[in-house]
């Protein structure tokens, strides 16, 4: 046996035993003798990819293909490396070539599907996953991947079935439990979602995505006490905070100089975060602060352009890794870095896990602790986080005066009017909130209210009604189970924002869901002259409407308990349809309140940033 084969045998044995450094050394010895040795190039590339050296891995596996172009495994592994490097079109070609060489390679079919899904081609992805299942019906990963593609298409019932099959085939496989949880959450089944996410974590205690989603989902479940949120956050942080810490920031600790403030979000667009940040960016004092926006999404619209124009600097970081984004933010010399997402979709908490900026804090987009050791503060107020609840946060709670939110009214003038004759009801209730917020307790109470007002209707407007097949029927079934007759609940899908707002002219009273209340929807209802009935709650997410109503001087619409909520709704219903005059008065009240005072709010916000900065300077 020649020396290369002896070395290769020893290298593969070391590789299989997970002695990677030894195996890498042996592969390199082989390549020193025979640079074109295909197995050595390929397997060294596999080690390089596993070690985070993606570019080197791609080069090594490409060399293996040059030597043995008909080996499907080489094309398959190069496809996986290209996907990890973000070279999605190249990954597609690699997987297609692997399939051409070996049509029954089920792994190549499903991995091709994963790449196509990332490219936004979910229907093609479904076909690939189904092809993988044809070759290997017991391939649990392919069933799970098919579920994800179906969920992307809004086919949640089909996705649930695919996840269920993956779980049946491989009960200890954590991922389908996790994905099933996300599907249940989208469908408004927060209790089922929480159970599935816990099942995923039981099988993989370090499942970062399951822990992160559980942090958000459990806020929708009344039976989960807020004290448990921080326990889950700590488990998530333990699994997430594994990278080496960055060197300490080199910012000059001058307490009085102009501050560089950075905002990080994937939601600088027509989105509640965009609505709440708009007045702030426009009102920042240019002599006091220099504003940087780090956009973590490719989605843009008219509001994006408005925000871009109000920021001093705009950086697109959607395509950057956390490390590259951290380097960019460091090079910009950011003093105060503000996360606007928390554990919501599109978050970039990896940027905050390291000490990217001297002062790091969370605001607007998330209503609980992140659990991150390097997140210094969370901006709140005395209503959403009352005194005595600071222990529920790993961050220091910084309470702003009044409400912690500021509203930017729509730029387009949306006329208000009394409900049109076609509503044909003594009174019309409405809720334009995300379907995930409509819990069983919420449905039960709303059904009681409808039962107490003969002929009244409830218009429920949410994007899921259009995007999720079966969502309309599921919502109606839930009300039917409480004795609500057909036609009294009117489900509707999404509309462009101007049309969406004009639909409030059909609504007399807005009903707030619980335990996760509205936020932007509450302000939009008030802006359109519609009163909002909300319920006091035990968690920040359930107190957002309360703090907004208090700031507008409308705390009379905050109910102490479910009975009071029902009574308030009935009192308002007794007034009959909402007239144009009443609507106008309510808008004027909101417009004159601190909620719409962008300049005043921003002065308080800048003062908070300055105090945080001075604390860092003193400690440095």
Structure description:
- Helix content is 51%, strand content 9%.
- The chain is of the alpha/beta class.
- Among the domains are: 172-240, Tetratricopeptide repeat domain (Serine Threonine Protein Phosphatase 5, Tetratricopeptide repeat); 259-405, Rossmann fold (3-Layer(aba) Sandwich), CATH 3.40.50.11380; 421-596, Glycogen Phosphorylase B (Rossmann fold), CATH 3.40.50.
- Strands 3-2-1-4-5-6-7 form a 7-stranded parallel β-sheet, covered by helices on one side. A 6-stranded parallel β-sheet has the order 10-9-8-11-12-13, sandwiched between helices.
- Helix 1 (3-16) runs antiparallel to helix 2.
- The mean pLDDT is 95.
- Rg computed from alpha carbons, rounded to a whole number of angstroms: 27 Å
Q: What do we call the CATH homologous superfamily of the domain at 421-596?
A: Glycogen Phosphorylase B
Question: Judging by the overall fold, what is the CATH architecture of the domain at 421-596?
Answer: 3-Layer(aba) Sandwich
- Sum up the overall morphology in one term: globular
Counting helices, strands and paired strands, the structural category is alpha/beta
Number of strands: 13
Strand content: 5-15%
Largest sheet entry = 7 strands, parallel
Distance between the termini: 65 Å
Percent helix among the residues? 40-55%
């Amino acid at each position: 046996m020649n020396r290369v084969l002896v070395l290769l045998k020893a290298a593969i044995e070391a590789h299989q035993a997970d002695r990677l450094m030894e195996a890498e050394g042996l592969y390199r010895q082989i390549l020193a003798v025979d640079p074109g040795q295909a197995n050595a190039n390929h397997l060294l590339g596999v080690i390089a990819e596993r070690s985070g050296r993606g570019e080197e891995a791609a080069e090594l596996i490409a060399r293996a293909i040059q030597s043995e172009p008909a080996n499907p495994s080489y094309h398959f592994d190069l496809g996986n490396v290209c996907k990890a490097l973000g070279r999605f079109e190249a990954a597609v070609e690699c997987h297609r070539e692997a399939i051409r060489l070996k049509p029954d390679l089920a792994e190549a079919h499903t991995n091709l599907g994963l790449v196509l899904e990332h490219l936004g081609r979910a229907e093609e992805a479904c076909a690939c996953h189904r092809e993988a299942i044809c070759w290997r019906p017991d391939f649990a990963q392919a069933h799970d991947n098919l579920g994800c593609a179906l969920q992307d298409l809004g086919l949640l019932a089909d996705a649930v079935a695919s996840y269920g099959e993956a779980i049946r085939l491989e009960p200890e496989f954590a991922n389908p439990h996790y994905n099933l949880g996300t599907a249940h959450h989208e469908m408004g089944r927060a209790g089922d979602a929480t159970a599935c996410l816990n099942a995923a974590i039981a099988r993989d205690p370090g499942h970062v995505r399951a822990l992160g989603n559980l942090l958000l989902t459990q806020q929708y479940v009344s039976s989960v006490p807020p004290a448990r949120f921080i326990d889950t956050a700590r488990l998530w942080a333990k699994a997430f905070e594994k990278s080496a810490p960055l060197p300490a920031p080199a910012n000059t600790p001058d307490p009085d100089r102009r501050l560089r403030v950075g905002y990080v979000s994937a939601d600088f667009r027509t989105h509640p975060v965009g609505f709440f940040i708009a007045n702030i960016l426009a009102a920042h004092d240019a002599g006091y602060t220099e504003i940087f926006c780090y956009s973590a999404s490719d989605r843009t619209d008219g509001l994006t352009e408005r925000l871009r124009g109000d920021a001093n600097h705009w950086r697109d970081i959607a395509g950057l890794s956390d490390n590259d984004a951290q380097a960019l933010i460091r090079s910009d010399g950011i003093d105060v870095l503000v996360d606007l997402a928390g554990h919501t979709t599109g978050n970039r908490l990896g940027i905050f896990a390291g000490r990217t900026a001297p002062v790091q804090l969370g605001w607007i987009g998330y209503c609980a602790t992140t659990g991150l050791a390097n997140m210094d503060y969370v901006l709140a107020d005395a209503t959403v986080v009352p005194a005595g609840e600071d222990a529920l946060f790993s961050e220091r709670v910084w309470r702003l005066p009044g409400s912690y939110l500021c509203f930017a009214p729509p730029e387009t003038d949306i006329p208000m009017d009394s409900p049109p004759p076609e509503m044909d009801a003594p009174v019309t209730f409405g809720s334009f909130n995300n379907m995930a917020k409509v819990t069983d307790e919420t449905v039960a109470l709303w059904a009681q209210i409808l039962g107490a007002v003969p002929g009244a209707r409830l218009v429920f407007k949410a994007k899921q009604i259009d995007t999720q097949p079966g969502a309309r029927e599921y919502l109606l079934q839930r009300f039917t189970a409480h004795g609500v007759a057909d036609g009294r609940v009117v489900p509707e899908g999404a509309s462009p924002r101007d049309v969406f707002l004009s639909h409030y002219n059909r609504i007399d009273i807005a009903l707030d869901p619980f335990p996760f209340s509205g936020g932007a929807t509450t302000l939009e209802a008030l802006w359109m002259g519609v009163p909002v009935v909300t319920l006091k709650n035990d968690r920040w997410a359930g107190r957002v409407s309360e703090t907004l109503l208090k700031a507008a001087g409308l705390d009379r619409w905050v109910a102490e308990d479910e009975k009071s909520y029902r009574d308030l709704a009935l009192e308002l219903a007794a007034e009959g349809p909402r007239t144009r005059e009443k609507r106008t008065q309510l808008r004027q009240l909101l417009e004159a309140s601190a909620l719409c005072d962008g300049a005043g709010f921003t002065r308080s916000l800048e003062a908070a940033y300055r105090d945080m900065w001075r604390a860092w300077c003193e400690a440095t």
